[in-house]
């Protein structure tokens, strides 16, 4: 009997998965937790751990977490008025240039947010839509990836409408380009479409976190969300 090419490809993928099992395919690796709302300090919270710091509705960084190497997004060739860590600058500049050359120019809508800024942003969201909905679309203070200084909310250049005011900014020129290419520059869409039960947040096609090109490619190749990757492959699940 001849097996189909599709089945063969599936078998090969299964073998590949088995031979590169997650570094915790042992009993110590805990399953990815549900989307519950706790205030547990995240495991990797040194500034040098920015690539693998897990932030979600459970895990947080403390109020005092404020990277000391923040610089203006203008230093990366984009609009100023926002801050990112210096580790992000070069790749962000390269990505901005590539997007512009592709006819999909990007601008920054938000980047680093301190604990205090997130505190007022979240409170404003609660006033606007109520707590139950606010926690799905805005992180509580300490839980936001924006406090890392490596996360950016983008918008389309030349149009000051925030991306979240679109029906689906991910289908715009800039949004489409980012979705296809951001990984090449080390950026990951933290909250992709249809993954809310895993990421705990609604689809946010504008929200990208820098994890470096190696990790971004791994995440893409494995078809995982950032939260799953950090949990299963980057030591957070032990
Ligand atoms: Zn964001």
Could you name the key traits of this structure?
single chain; 238 residues; alpha+beta; Muramoyl-pentapeptide Carboxypeptidase, domain 2; 4-stranded antiparallel sheet; 8 strands; 35% helix; globular; disordered N terminus; binds zinc ion
Describe this structure in words.
By secondary structure, the protein is α+β, with helices and mostly antiparallel strands. It has a single domain, classed as Muramoyl-pentapeptide Carboxypeptidase, domain 2 (2-Layer Sandwich), CATH 3.30.1380.10. It is 35% helix and 12% strand. It contains 8 helices and 8 strands. The chain has helices spanning 5-19, 86-101, 115-129, 131-137, 173-181, 196-199, 213-222, 226-232; strands spanning 40-41, 59-60, 70-72, 83-85, 106-110, 151-156, 187-189, 207-210. The protein has a 4-stranded antiparallel sheet. It has a two-stranded parallel sheet with strand order 1-2. Helix 3 packs across helix 4 (131-137). The radius of gyration is 18 Å and the shape is globular. Zinc ion binds next to loops.
Short structural description:
This protein has 238 residues and is an alpha+beta fold.
Provide the list of bound ligands, each named once.
zinc ion
Radius of gyration: 18 Å
Number of helices: 8
Tell me the fraction of residues in β-strands, as a range: 5-15%
The main sheet orders its strands as: 5-6-8-7
Number of domains: 1
**Portion of residues within helices:** 25-40%
Instruction: Give the ordered list of helices and strands.
Output: HEEEEHEHHEHEHEHH
Examine the secondary-structure arrangement and name the CATH architecture.
Answer: 2-Layer Sandwich
CATH fold call: Muramoyl-pentapeptide Carboxypeptidase, domain 2
Which regions have little confidence, pLDDT < 50, spanning 5+ residues?
Answer: 1-20
Identify the overall geometry.
globular
Mean pLDDT, as a whole number?
Answer: 91
Q: Distance between the terminal alpha carbons, to the nearest Å?
A: 44 Å
Instruction: Report the count of strand segments.
Output: 8
Secondary structure class reads alpha+beta
Which CATH first-tier class would you pick?
Answer: Alpha Beta
Query: Main β-sheet: number of strands, strand sense, barrel status?
Result: 4 strands, antiparallel
């Amino acid at each position: 009997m001849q097996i189909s090419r599709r089945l063969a490809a599936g078998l090969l993928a299964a073998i590949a998965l088995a031979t590169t099992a997650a570094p915790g395919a042992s009993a110590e690796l805990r399953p990815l937790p549900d989307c519950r709302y706790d205030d547990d300090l995240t495991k990797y919270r040194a500034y040098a751990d920015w690539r693998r710091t897990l932030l979600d509705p459970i895990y947080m960084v403390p109020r005092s977490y404020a990277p000391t190497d923040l610089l203006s997004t203008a230093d990366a060739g984009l609009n100023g008025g926002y801050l990112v860590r210096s580790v992000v600058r070069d790749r962000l500049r390269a990505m901005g240039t590539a997007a512009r050359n592709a006819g999909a120019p990007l601008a920054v809508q938000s980047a680093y947010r301190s604990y205090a800024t997130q505190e007022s942003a979240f409170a404003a969201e609660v006033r606007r839509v109520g707590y139950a909905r606010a926690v799905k679309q805005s992180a509580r203070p300490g839980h936001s990836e924006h406090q890392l200084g490596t996360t950016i909310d983008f918008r389309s250049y030349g149009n000051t409408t925030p991306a979240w005011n679109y029906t689906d900014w991910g289908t715009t020129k800039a949004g489409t380009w980012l979705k296809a290419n951001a990984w090449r520059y080390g950026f990951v869409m933290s909250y992709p479409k249809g993954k809310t039960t895993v990421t705990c947040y609604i689809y946010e096609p504008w929200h990208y976190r820098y994890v470096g090109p190696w990790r971004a490619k791994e995440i893409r190749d494995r078809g995982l969300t950032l939260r799953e990757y950090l949990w299963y492959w980057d030591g957070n699940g032990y």
